[in-house]
Amino acid sequence: MTAQHDGRPVTVMVVDDHPMWRDAVARDLSEAGFDVVATAGDGPQAVRRAKAAGPDVLVLDLNLPGLPGVEVCKEALADRPELRVLVLSASGEHADVLEAVKSGATGYLLKSASTEELLDAVRRTAVGDPVFTPGLAGLVLGEYRRLAGEPAPTAADQPAAPQLTERETEVLRLVAKGLSYKQIAERLVISHRTVQNHVQNTLGKLQLHNRVELVRYAIERGLDDA
């Protein structure tokens, strides 16, 4: 299955300070139909090349010389907010996972993942699905819940929440539970494209940028428990 984005191959950049690992990941992605537009071996080089190459997906190690991966993530996203970042790390430490997500990473995969799991994760990251190594998704959702329990500093200034349709709310609830677009389509007996349309409409109404922010919004309102 060729990885397509808007009718063209998904472009990917691979950042890791170990040349053999970096080359192997880049080769696996290329062979699977991704267009690997750049690689980098340290933090500052990663920021420069990400700006120049403009990939759809950044596959990023956290432990980099020169500039930590989380800083690379922040800087790359500040330059291109539409970029998707998949962290590929040897560390399953909770603090590392949460720091990566807070810096804007869409997903977090451990380096113990198989090649197939990596390819699937990059495909899903490209369309905005949050992808986490099993066990880490619950941790991230738990953190969002904790943050949601803290009062928002500007709650009094915020306008009333926009009105979502019943179907949009239903889709949002399933997104918050961690279902993929495909699973949501099957559950609601609608097409994958219709699910995407509902999500895009909801993002627009709520003035959010991606699915990770959408999940956070839904959890803050308790929709994942509904």
TrEMBL record:
Write down a Pfam family by its short name. Answer: GerE
GO biological process per UniProt: phosphorelay signal transduction system; regulation of DNA-templated transcription
User: 4-aspartylphosphate is carried by which residues?
Assistant: D61
SMART domains for this protein: HTH_LUXR, REC
> What sequence ranges are listed for the domain Response regulatory?
11-126
PROSITE patterns associated with the record: HTH_LUXR_1, HTH_LUXR_2, RESPONSE_REGULATORY
UniProt keyword terms in alphabetical order = DNA-binding, Phosphoprotein
Q: Where is the HTH luxR-type domain?
A: 157-222
**InterPro entries per the UniProt record, alphabetical:** CheY-like_superfamily, NreC/VraR/RcsB-like_REC, Sig_transdc_resp-reg_C-effctor, Sig_transdc_resp-reg_receiver, Tscrpt_reg_LuxR_C, WalR-like
A GO molecular function held by the record: DNA binding
Please name the Gene3D superfamilies in this protein's record: 3.40.50.2300
The identity of this protein, by name, is DNA-binding NarL/FixJ family response regulator
Q: To which species is this protein native?
A: Streptomyces iranensis
Q: What is the lineage of its organism?
A: Bacteria, Bacillati, Actinomycetota, Actinomycetes, Kitasatosporales
